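Figure 3 (text version): C-alpha cells given as input.
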C-alpha cells in the first residue's frame, strides 16, 4: 500500500464542512440526560446525551476553573428564556453553554465546543 492510501486508512477524509468526524461511541454508551468522556488523540472530550431535548453536545472535558477533567460528570439542564442548554461543573457548579461554550456565571473563561452528529446508532464528533 502506498503512503497516500495508508494515510487515508488511518485518518478519515476531510468533510465538506472542514471537519474530521471521528466515531466517539454508540448511542447506548452514554446514559440519557448524562455525559461521558471520550479521548481523541491527546484531548479528552465530554459528550452529552441531552435526551430531554433530543440533542447531543460535546465540549472539552477540562474545567477551566479547577483545571480538572470533570465536565463529563457535570449536570446538564437549561437556562434563561431561550432555555439554552448548559452543563454545570460537578466541583464548583460554574455553568457553561453547551452551544457556545461561554461561562453563564459571568466569568470571562469559556470552554471549547464540538459539533456532534448521530448516524445509524453511532455518535460522531467533528474536530478541526
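Below: residues designed for each position.
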Amino acid at each position: 500500500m502506498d503512503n497516500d492510501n495508508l494515510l487515508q486508512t488511518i485518518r478519515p477524509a476531510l468533510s465538506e464542512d472542514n471537519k474530521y468526524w471521528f466515531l466517539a461511541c454508540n448511542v447506548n454508551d452514554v446514559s440519557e440526560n448524562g455525559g461521558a468522556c471520550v479521548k481523541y488523540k491527546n484531548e479528552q472530550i465530554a459528550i452529552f446525551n441531552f435526551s430531554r431535548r433530543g440533542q447531543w453536545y460535546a465540549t472539552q472535558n477540562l474545567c477551566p476553573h479547577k483545571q480538572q477533567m470533570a465536565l463529563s460528570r457535570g449536570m446538564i439542564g437549561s437556562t434563561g428564556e431561550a432555555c439554552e442548554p448548559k452543563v454545570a461543573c460537578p466541583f464548583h457548579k460554574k455553568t457553561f453553554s453547551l452551544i457556545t461554550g461561554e461561562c453563564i456565571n459571568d466569568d470571562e473563561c469559556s470552554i471549547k465546543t464540538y459539533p456532534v452528529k448521530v448516524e445509524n446508532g453511532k455518535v460522531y464528533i467533528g474536530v478541526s
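Confidence is low (pLDDT under 50) at residues 1-13.
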